[in-house]
Amino acid sequence: MGCFTFAKCVMVVVSLLIFVAGASMVAIGTWVHIDGGSFIKILVPFMTNYIRHANVPVFFICLGSVMVLLGILGCCGAKKESKFLLIMFFSIIMIIFISEVAAGVIILVYSRDAKDFLSSWALPGLMTYGKEEVFTDLWNSTMISFRCCGFNNYTDFSESYFYEQNGLLYPPTCCRTPAGYPCVEETALFSHVVGCYKKIVSLVQRNIILVSAIAIGIAGIEMAAIAMAIYLYCYLDDKAT
Fold first, then answer.
1. Which UniProt keywords apply (predicted)?
2. Rounded mean pLDDT, 83-110
């Protein structure tokens, strides 16, 4: 088997992987859009309200459609030996790859400032807890799922709408008390329920190996696709001349 034939085979396999992944995302997005209730039942509580209020199905369908298009371009470009399709495939996947690298660099550079950035968004928003339904549902789901309270701790709810409208009480998740008992400041203080930021950071740290492996795998597939597209295009260009 020559290098060109091998490159075509690799290109077809990679394109099919991208196509299948994209088609799966489109199917999931369509399922959630049409029958979100049954899909939500298999997800954790945090995702329940997130999917209900955000355009997650639209995001899945759009991203999956782009991946399906990439898979078709790559597969047809390799099979038909079309330079146009190959350069289209290369251009799109190169833009995606550069965007991912840029996002990774930004995350690394500003990771130390992540807490300050998130707190500047979360703490003012917690003042409206109990008033804004979408925001309240999202925080309730997060606190129940991670067994946490507020961003840093229960004091984030002090002077909030919920705190003032409920007789200086804190959300039930901020206290380790039997159901029905009010969550007052003393109880919240001695409950020592940690903030959601620490819980989420701990979860990310425990799964960093899995996340890194997935990221490396995706990057490897993209780099292989880019390399094969360049090789095939250059081979066909030389062959044409």
1. Glycoprotein, Lysosome, Membrane, Transmembrane, Transmembrane helix
2. 84
